[in-house]
Automatic annotation (TrEMBL):
Name the UniProt record assigns to this protein: Ribosomal RNA small subunit methyltransferase A
A Pfam match: RrnaAD
Matching Gene3D superfamilies: Ribosomal RNA adenine dimethylase-like, domain 2 (1.10.8.100), Vaccinia Virus protein VP39 (3.40.50.150)
GO molecular function (one): RNA binding
Functional description taken from the UniProt entry: Specifically dimethylates two adjacent adenosines (A1518 and A1519) in the loop of a conserved hairpin near the 3'-end of 16S rRNA in the 30S particle. May play a critical role in biogenesis of 30S subunits.
Gene from which this protein is expressed: rsmA
Length: 286
């Protein structure tokens, strides 16, 4: 049977056999710790009935763990050199399909061959510089995703899961918690990767909800207000909301109608309060 790829020796062997070097530009840090792979696989809660989209399989480390559950795995890899490597490292699995390309440019339901009503799970250990844009793009497209399990920098994980009142609570917390219920799964030290990154990482599991946590009448206005509130964190809401194109009078009237004190700051407002504010501002503009 195929050896476990999540191991320093096996990984070194694969890299040298294929004359590969981890590409910095593509953010390649390969997992070499099998307990981390297992933690990610467990957090995805997979069964053979599941369809998993893996983003950035690398040399197949996590892909192997996902495939072992019996789920159908479709893995999208940008590095043109890797599909040939993956064909070899994952040749023991008939439930894995490798799709070359950039996840941000592919039609996901099409590559997954999703049937009407079918949902899927997303698992990703991505380069840190594109994790947030990729997560947000997937969620905003309202794809039928059930769970999203991703490796991110520890500080990003803290922001994704932060609650109102915390210094880490901001636009990312609200965006993630609008669509999902996120949970911190585990911290991952640099030595779990080859090469080791400079920062500590963490795995976050996001359970995507059928219905968003709040339902503002105008979603665009809601996110505009959120972004204005956190664009100028130091300012009170009364002043910060002018960043969303409101006059000070409109800002004052909106806050009053929503029952929110003028001197509050964005980091103190729950999603429910932001939705109330957004509806109040929207009603006043009618
Ligand atoms: N999943 C492997 C692991 O855990 O060892 C590799 C992780 S490595 C941090 C990230 C992988 O994502 C690399 O193989 C890289 O080539 C790939 N990648 C980077 N940008 C991508 C994109 N836009 N679409 C798909 N894959 C991408």
């Amino acid at each position: 049977s195929t050896p476990i790829i999540a191991d320093p020796k096996v990984t070194r062997h694969i890299l040298s056999a294929f004359h590969l070097r981890a590409s910095k530009r593509l953010g390649q840090n390969f997992l070499v710790d099998r307990s981390v792979v297992q933690g990610i696989v467990d957090a995805a809660e997979l069964s053979p009935a599941d369809i998993v989209l893996e983003i950035g399989p690398g040399i197949g480390t996590l892909t192997q763990g996902l495939a072992e559950t019996g789920a159908r795995v479709v893995a999208v890899e940008l590095d043109k050199k890797l599909p040939a490597v993956l064909a070899e490292t994952l040749k023991g699995y008939d439930n894995v399909q490798i799709v070359p390309g950039d996840i941000l440019k592919l039609n996901i339901p099409e590559i997954l061959e999703l049937r009407a009503g079918e949902r899927f799970k997303v698992v990703a250990n991505l380069p840190y510089y594109i994790t947030t844009p990729i997560i947000m793009t997937l969620l905003e497209q309202r794809l039928p995703i059930e769970r999203l399990v991703t490796m991110v920098q520890k500080e990003v994980a803290v922001r994704m899961t932060a609650r109102p009142g915390s210094k880490d609570y901001g636009a990312l917390s609200i965006a993630v918690q609008y669509f999902t219920v996120p949970r911190m799964v585990m911290d991952v030290p640099p030595r779990a990767f080859m090469p080791a990154p400079e920062v500590t990482s963490a795995v976050v599991a996001c359970h995507v909800q059928d219905v968003p946590t709040v339902r503002p009448q105008d979603e665009k206005l809601f996110f505009r207000l959120v972004s204005a509130a956190f664009g100028q964190r130091r300012k009170t809401l009364l002043n910060a909301l002018t960043g969303a194109g409101l006059t000070k009078e409109e800002s004052r009237a909106g806050l009053a109608a929503a029952g929110i004190a003028e001197n509050m700051r964005g980091e103190q407002l729950s999603l429910v309060a932001f939705a109330r504010l957004s509806d109040a501002v929207g009603d006043l503009a009618k």
